[in-house]
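Whiteboard transcription, Tuesday session. T.W. wrote the structure tokens on the left side:
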């Protein structure tokens, strides 16, 4: 594909599909975060799918609330939530309006804006750890609840969030398995997708009883 195509924003139709189609297709795409310091671009390497009212692991499983309202809106918007009293997580709403499906952005490779990301993640031991886990990704990009509901499908280069076509991961390198930290009935859904052998992918962790996090680790997973 041409460089021009790689820089083309993904259209809303990309997100207006079932979540289990959108999630693996996001691997290799480029998330652009425009900050006050300048742009940060991240190649997505790990995501998780959450299927709304049919998914016990989803924030929307029990219906609409003030917190999850964005998930019930049109596709192609950001759903940002705050968890454990410490971390934000960034998700992309997909499927038709009212289904409340979303994809959690779990990890990525920082392509540009390393200096801006490092300023927010000074304890990262290397560039591969800047966005290695959903809380780390959101922190590195300066994502918080202010961005909840942001349209990610616009063409304005100054928009706070956009998703570009990038270079989709080769199907042969896409892996899937249980979602990190999800318990109960949704524990075995193989809806975590990642690029095999990519060093920015976060380690898998099985569900553990909830406790307060004391450091910035791979982060929470339920969406």
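and on the right, the sequence the group agreed on:
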């Amino acid at each position: 594909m041409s460089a021009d195509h790689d820089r083309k924003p993904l259209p809303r139709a990309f997100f207006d599909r079932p979540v289990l189609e959108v999630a693996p297709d996001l691997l290799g795409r480029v998330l652009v975060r425009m900050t006050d310091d300048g742009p940060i671009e991240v190649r997505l390497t790990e995501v998780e799918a959450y299927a709304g009212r049919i998914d016990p692991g989803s924030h929307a499983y029990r219906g609409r609330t003030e917190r999850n309202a964005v998930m019930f809106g049109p596709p192609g918007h950001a759903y940002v939530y705050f968890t454990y009293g410490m971390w934000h997580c960034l998700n992309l709403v997909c499927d038709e309006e009212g289904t409340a499906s979303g994809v959690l952005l779990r990890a990525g490779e920082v392509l540009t804006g390393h200096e801006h990301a490092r300023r927010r993640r000074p304890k990262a031991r290397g560039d591969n750890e800047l966005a290695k886990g959903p809380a780390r990704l959101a922190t590195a990009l300066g994502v918080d609840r202010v961005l909840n509901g942001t349209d990610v499908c616009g063409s304005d280069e100054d928009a706070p969030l956009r998703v570009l076509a990038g270079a989709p991961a080769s199907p042969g390198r896409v892996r899937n398995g249980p979602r990190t930290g999800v318990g109960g009935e949704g524990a075995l859904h193989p809806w975590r997708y990642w690029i095999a052998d990519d060093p920015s992918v976060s380690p898998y962790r099985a569900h553990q009883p909830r406790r307060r996090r004391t450091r910035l680790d791979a982060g929470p997973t339920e969406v």
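Someone added at the bottom: The beta strands are 30-34, 39-50, 78-83, 87-94, 101-112, 161-164, 174-177, 192-195.
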